[in-house]
Design a protein that fits this description.
Length: 493
């Protein structure tokens, strides 16, 4: 009851707040739930924000008003705002989830989005289109290869090895690394998402030729879409993971959770195949503790193809509310924000006023900028809307961040050395899959728990067929039916 009353109160406050916003002369409102303000929930200093707002109007020709997220759960806050009398005009969301509240963007993009259309990869737009050809959002991200394997050049040099190219060469690299230092380990992450998919995104396709962001493949025997635990070769994947466990290659806490920064700080991570930014962001900050430590990207080929799987961009997008009264101004703002000729708009939105809060080191696409600490400028990026890979065009003049931003513009979007999943350009309606598979959460939990047991030998891989029977009992056929129906519908369209 207390939670209900709190929610009602928050809804009233949100409604009153947005009503006051609409009355102060702005063209549209932005609920900036992009992640830009996730560590700055209070927003910018009001006086500084007013100066930046005037500068934004001068450069873009429009006047946005930002609603700063002030709840830990920004999805809950978004839903409260949308239920109010003055919902936000622009926000970030999975368009397929919020489609009934959104405005198609085809005409707006054609009339006011020329620079924006050139800035965003053509392939990213495929995720934004519904079955009727309506473009429902502006892509927040792009297809990437974030689960690539990384090895250490300094270890390769000591061992007299080249960068590994096959599973066998990667295993030989780990054996050589542990001869140099028995504490050298291989790392991945199993605690994110559904707690089994990230290691599979890093390794499984080499043995199965089948992995995707929805953990799906098409069974050639019957043409149905099935989860990867049913893929031919899945036992080979599990044997590989278990073999590395038995040889002591894996970092012991891979299957639970660990502080990635602290582990890299030990200098003992010989191989990494988890989220890419642990190498591009963490390593430059700790490398001074580890003289000579240098990671290199190592695309690995297995018996059935590339080991890492490409991550589809999905349906996450910047979307426009169908109740927005001035959508042309919104598109004009976004066209300025992600301009293909200059980062002036993006740098202003993120950093503030050029010459006061930031400056160019070098202009161009990409550009290098000098920025000040946000605690000093008192502007935290309220008007900034991150968009990958566009954000890679604004590179900070900071050696600690150079590796990361250089990789954003090159290696992360290099897809020709990772497995291309069947659904790379398909926008799954995961909410519908969950509705049609009531036990889906339990199924993912069972896969996570049992895959970990197979990796570590707590359960014999000889019992794998028994495990599949357990998944069937838990409702796996509902999952297969739900995915197959959606895939067939996408083909029909």
């Amino acid at each position: 009851m207390k939670k209900l009353l709190s929610t009602i109160f928050l809804s009233i406050v949100v409604s009153l707040f947005t009503t006051s916003l609409k009355a102060d002369g702005h063209d549209f409102t932005i609920f900036n739930n992009s992640g830009m303000l996730q560590f700055d929930g209070g927003g910018s200093d009001p006086e500084v924000l007013a100066k930046v707002a005037a500068h934004v109007k001068k450069l873009s020709g429009v006047t946005p008003k930002v609603i700063v997220p002030n709840m830990q759960d920004t999805t809950e806050q978004l839903n409260l705002l949308l239920a109010g009398s003055n919902p936000p005009d622009l926000f970030q969301a999975n368009w397929d989830v919020y489609k009934s509240t959104l405005m198609p963007l085809n005409d707006l993009l054609a009339k006011h989005g020329d620079a924006l259309l050139r800035s965003i990869p053509e392939t990213s737009w495929k995720y934004m289109t519904d079955s009727d050809g309506n473009i429902m959002g502006i892509p927040r991200t792009a297809a990437t290869s974030p689960f690539m394997t990384w090895v250490r050049q300094d270890i390769l040099d000591q061992a007299g090895l080249d960068v590994p190219k096959t599973v066998e060469e990667l295993t030989a690299y780990m054996a050589a690394a542990q001869k140099i230092n028995p504490d050298f380990k291989a790392g991945t992450r199993a605690w994110s998402g559904n707690k089994w998919e990230e290691p599979a995104m890093g390794f499984a396709a080499a043995f199965t030729g089948a992995m995707s962001g929805n953990a799906a493949f098409i069974d050639p025997s019957d043409g149905r879409v099935k989860p990867v635990p049913l893929a031919d070769g899945i036992k080979d994947y599990l044997h590989f993971m278990n073999d590395w466990h038995n040889k002591g290659y894996w970092y012991p806490d891979n299957w639970s959770k660990f502080d990635e920064s602290e582990v890299f700080r030990t200098c003992n991570m010989a191989m990494w195949s988890g989220w890419y930014s642990r190498v591009t962001i963490i390593v430059p900050k700790v490398v001074s503790n580890c003289p000579g430590m240098e990671y290199v990207r190592a695309p690995i080929m297995g018996p059935k193809g590339w080991m890492a799987t490409t991550r589809a961009s999905g349906t996450q997008a910047y979307v426009i509310n169908k109740k927005a009264k001035n959508p042309e101004a919104i598109m004009q703002y976004l066209n300025w924000m992600w301009n293909d000729q200059s980062i002036d708009g993006y740098a202003t939105g993120v950093n503030g006023i050029e010459g006061e809060h930031w400056s160019y080191e070098t202009k161009g696409m990409p550009a290098v900028v000098n920025t000040k600490d946000k605690a000093e400028t008192k502007y935290v990026g309220d008007f900034g809307l991150p968009n990958f890979p566009y954000e890679g065009n604004m590179q900070p003049n900071d050696s600690l961040w150079a590796t990361h931003f250089n990789y954003l513009g090159s290696g992360l979007t290099k897809l020709d050395d990772s497995h291309q999943p069947i659904d790379l350009y398909m926008a799954w309606d995961k909410g519908r899959i969950a509705d049609e598979t009531p036990t889906l959460g339990d199924i993912h939990r069972m896969i996570a728990e049992n895959f970990t047991a197979f990796y570590t030998g707590e359960r014999s891989i000889d019992e794998y067929d028994d495990f599949l029977a357990e998944l069937d009992d838990a409702g796996m056929q509902d999952w297969i039916n739900a995915m197959t129906a959606q895939m067939q519908e996408s083909w029909a369209n």
